[in-house]
Amino acid sequence: MIAPPPDNEAQRLAILRDYAMLDTPPAEVLDELTELAATICDTPIALITLIDEKRQWFKAHHGTQLTETHRDHAFCAHAILQPDMLLVRDALTDPRFADNVLVHDQPKIRFYAGSPLVAPEGVILGTLCVIDHRPRDLSSRQKRALHLLGHQAMAWLDAQRRDHVRREKARPASDSTTEPAIAAADIAALKEAERKVRELNRELEQRFEQRTRELALANRELETFTYTVSHDLKAPLRGIDGYSRLLLEDHGSRLDLEGRTFLHNIRQGVDRMGQLIDDLLTYSRMERRAMHIDQVRLAELVTEVINERRHDIDESHAEVSLSVDIPDLRADADSLRLALRNLFDNSLKFRRPDRAAKIAIRARNLPGSTEIEIADNGIGFDMRFHDRIFEVFQRLHRAEEFPGTGIGLAIVHKALQRMGGGVHADSKPGEGSTFTLEIPR
């Protein structure tokens, strides 16, 4: 899909020409900005783009040798149509980009995030964007960092523009005596602007690295604490479970209705707590256990997961279809089984009450990765909450309606992350959800 020009296109192009930036040599400070953006967002490619009449031109680029592309194919041509960041989690599932030549050929864009470069007049000249070859998302911190780096890129461009305007204004009226002084002042101002941007780049990079180390340490400590506490809670819980069961079996007939109700509530609470502890232990073990990447027969593994849930499938009258044509893939079998099991259970659990569940499992090989999709026609969810659903204890529905611990999708995310892959979702409330696992080949 070709992006239409913005309503202020004539003004935007005139202001872009005022910057006199197109087809100029590389700028080290902007090259450093793109490298920093790629590092923070963990993407192979980052660009600073400017959009003129027929092309997007790269003032700075990291991770690709391309210097420009046709505007008709540019993701950034869509990004300049909106004031906030354009986020494309999976280009193949986005109708604007599914047939785009840049998706199917180099640089094989699957993920895109572009922060607009906004001139003081309010027009958008281009973007600072990051690109990946696999579907994914950015954390809230990464989005914020990309936004700030875009501001710094625009500040540098504005300084260049002011310098260009000063030189243009000074040229007609100046003589041989004043021109050197003006030029020297302009060069000094430009060098000072570049120095400030470099200092900020270094400061941002240092802060990011420090914060990353702190978060990694905090996560390790939290996972160790979670594992220890969960393990220690199992023993007293087993005692409560055993004695309450004996009380119900041996003395239940002596209790009145209220007493039996209380005892049943205790039993249900024990079951819920046991499931929560088991899920917490599973999540903690995902980080601690060694990965064994080997050839996995995917069709057999998926069939095994389906057969494990055969009773639930029959009881709910669910329809399950399987289209797995690839013979095998390289993965950690236990982690992949756990991820598939959690997603399949969710499709059974979050079904609509007015129709039978339909669950489709598909797999395909792509350049560099294998994708596994689990799609259903369930209740779905609002995509505004996409980033939250893979966090521990995050629930989008009341526990009374759909029981659970809120850890299942966090386990899926952790399992794919440990294998070097990723997971993302696409959903509409009332229509269903599609979860896509991506595993490197």
Give the gist of this structure.
The protein is α+β, with helices and mostly antiparallel strands and 441 residues long. 50% of the residues lie in helices and 19% in strands. The strands form 3 sheets. A 6-stranded antiparallel sheet has the order 3-2-1-6-5-4. A 5-stranded mixed sheet has the order 8-10-11-13-12, with helices on one face. It has a two-stranded antiparallel ribbon with strand order 7-9.
Describe, in plain words, how this protein is organized in 3D.
The protein is of the alpha+beta class and 441 residues long. The protein has 3 domains: 165 residues, GAF domain (Beta-Lactamase), CATH 3.30.450.40; 72 residues; 148 residues, Heat Shock Protein 90, CATH 3.30.565. Helix content is 50%, strand content 19%. The protein has 11 helices and 13 strands. The strands form 3 sheets. Strands 3-2-1-6-5-4 form a 6-stranded antiparallel sheet. Strands 8-10-11-13-12 form a 5-stranded mixed sheet, covered by helices on one side. A hairpin with a 2-residue loop joins strand 10 and strand 11. Helix 2 packs parallel to helix 6. The two termini are 30 Å apart.
